[in-house]
Design goal:
Layout: E1 7-17, E2 22-44, E3 47-59, H1 67-72, H2 75-78, E4 89-92, H3 107-113, E5 117-125, E6 129-134
Antiparallel strand pairs: 1-2, 1-4, 2-3, 3-6, 4-5, 5-6
Length: about 140
């Protein structure tokens, strides 16, 4: 169970559309997650390096499949599932923006028009939830 529910999120899963020959994004809303900002510091011989990231804690859900399984799903099957893979986008909040691949409905438009859009950098399953890190 997520410890501190403070947000809903919208996940945009990237997939290749063989019909159009383009990368497309499927939108899935996930309710009741823990969205946390995190600052990482690294000391090197050139000084202090700071990097901000986001950690999202998501309860395990029945409609999750692994990134490799997600890539194999047909168009009809894909709409019933989501995944957490590098290259996917997560937006804080419930977003009804559909990425269609043409202006003004491109992934770049999503990033330009909405706050709190993060790129999934990693995800790891824990006992009853996932921990997703993004930038």
């Amino acid at each position: 169970m997520v410890l501190f529910v403070n947000s809903d999120i919208t996940i945009y899963n990237k997939y290749y559309d063989f019909t159009s020959g383009n990368d497309m994004y499927q939108r899935t809303v996930v309710k009741d997650v823990d969205w946390q900002g995190k600052r990482n510091a690294t000391v090197s011989n050139t000084g202090l390096l700071l990097a901000d990231s986001i950690v999202i804690i998501i309860d395990k859900l029945e409609n999750y499949v692994s990134p490799k399984q997600f890539a194999k799903l047909s168009d009809d099957e894909r709409v019933n599932y989501f995944t957490l893979a590098m290259g996917d986008k997560i937006v804080k909040g419930v977003i009804d923006f559909e990425v269609l691949g043409i202006s003004p409905y491109r992934i770049a438009d999503l990033e330009k028009d909405f706050d709190d859009v993060v790129n999934v950098m990693s995800s790891r399953p824990l006992s009853d939830h996932w921990e997703v890190e993004g930038k």
